[in-house]
Design goal:
Serine Threonine Protein Phosphatase 5, Tetratricopeptide repeat; 436 residues; alpha+beta; TolA/TonB C-terminal domain; single chain; two-stranded parallel ribbon
Length: 436
């Protein structure tokens, strides 16, 4: 069921926050918090156009995200955007939408005594939802607006790209790629060291790579993203918006590499993102973690889990448990124990406590500490005497101690009580090998 929503981005009047007062010399760039007295402050000339480009991200609408993104923008003597800093935002989704287009704002320049000068202004964007129009409807409205624009300017490579991105949001990937291809085709691809056209060549290549990844066309995604990264390296006039997109290109290419089983290259791309982009670091860690599990690369798994503790503090129980589990698999039996002790200290869940005690028993068994292992199995069994997992681990302990008959009874009881997952597979294998 689609929640019906109406949304709009409200561009409010400028707000100014300053600390300190100074006289600004001609051509001088003020500090971001300098208070510069002017006769006339910059005014935005193309709000409606930029508003249509920003729109309201479908993901934000579907998650009911609304509120302010406040961006402090430096305007040059010609009224052009120079750089910006996000001062406040309610969501990275809204931040990304604003930052993608903030550089397209055009202003009247600041004036003092008839002279123009550079000037910092705060531009607040208010994203607000009301219950009348769906996200898809709003996207269709943006597409209609871009249709009209392309009728007037059929070689507008930027408009083709923007329409392609809107189709991507709707999941209409073939139409999205067609528009991105048109953007690439009509882009003059000149002045690669200056001007927007070469930068938009890069944006189009990056966007096409994202679409291919969504379609699970990994080879095509890898190839076009490789082109995008090469194009980015050629661009000399790099603004802050452009720079923030580069780690995303590496992340998307890493995803393609991972699905093509080009593991080393995927690791390299994910590591680039982890090292260079705080905002995307946790996403890259999650992808690297999944890849390292598939590869049974235990050092990489443990390294990712260490950093994921910082990224996902609300998920620390799961991370501690998984870290202990993979420490056992990598032979770090003694080091695994504190992780499970942490789980037992923080969790009141019977199932989690049973699993943690059983894993500790397994670690003790690997170290030859059978009394400690038995104590942990007993602790797990006391939580729920009918749970099959302690029966299975008691069977493992008996098998380690040479009591094959007793072990087989425990394995069979565990299976009869509904043992599941990897433990079930191992119990069935042991019953087949040892109990006939």
């Amino acid at each position: 069921m689609i929640i019906q929503l109406k949304f709009q981005v409200l561009f409010l009047g400028f707000l100014f926050l300053f600390t300190g007062i100074q006289a600004q010399k001609e051509g001088e760039t003020p500090g971001i918090n300098d208070f510069v007295v002017v006769d006339e402050e910059p005014q935005v000339l193309n709000l409606r156009e930029v508003q249509e480009m920003i729109g309201y991200p479908a993901e934000a609408v579907n998650e009911n995200i609304q509120g302010y993104v406040v961006v402090r923008t430096l305007v040059d003597e010609e009224g052009k955007y120079m750089q910006h800093k996000v001062l406040r935002s309610v969501s990275p989704i809204l931040t990304s939408a604003v930052e993608t287009h903030i550089h397209k704002l055009r202003f009247t320049p600041a004036l003092v005594g008839g002279d123009v000068l550079k000037f910092w202004v705060n531009v607040p964007f208010n994203f607000r939802l009301t219950d009348t129009t769906s996200a898809d409807t709003r996207i269709r409205q943006v597409i209609t607006s871009l249709d009209e624009k392309l009728k007037e300017s059929p070689n507008d490579y930027e408009a083709y790209l923007q329409r392609g991105l809107q189709y991507k949001e709707l999941g209409e990937f073939e139409k999205s790629r067609q528009d991105i291809d048109k953007s690439l085709a009509v882009n003059p691809q000149k002045n690669k060291k200056k001007g927007d056209n070469y930068i938009y060549l890069y944006y189009a290549q990056l966007s096409k790579g994202k679409v291919y990844n969504l379609e699970k066309k990994w080879t095509e995604a890898r190839d076009i993203l490789h082109q995008a990264i090469a194009t980015a390296a050629e661009v000399k006039n790099r603004d802050s918006v452009f720079l923030t997109t580069i780690p995303n290109a590496y992340l998307e290419r890493g995803i393609a590499y991972a699905n093509l089983k080009e593991t080393h290259k995927a690791y390299k791309d994910f590591d680039y993102v982890i090292a260079n982009d705080e905002e995307s670091k946790c996403f890259a860690l999650a992808f690297k973690y999944d890849l390292s599990i598939r590869q049974k690369d235990y050092p990489a798994i443990l390294s990712c889990l260490e950093e994921l503790l910082i990224c996902e503090p609300d998920n620390e129980l799961s991370i501690f448990f998984n870290r202990g589990y993979y420490k056992i698999l990598s032979g770090q039996y003694e080091n695994a124990l504190p992780d499970f002790e942490m789980v037992l200290d923080k969790s009141a869940s019977p199932l989690i406590r049973i699993a943690a005690n059983n894993q500790m028993a397994k670690a003790y068994m690997k170290m030859g500490k059978f009394e400690e292992a038995k104590a942990k199995i007993d602790e797990a069994s006391n939580i729920n005497v009918l749970h099959p997992q302690p029966l299975f681990y008691r069977g493992l302990l008996l098998l380690e101690q040479g009591d094959k008959e007793g072990a087989c009874k425990q394995f069979q009881n565990a299976l009869n009580f509904g043992l599941e997952g990897d433990d079930k597979d191992e119990a069935e294998k042991l019953v087949g090998e040892s109990c006939r």
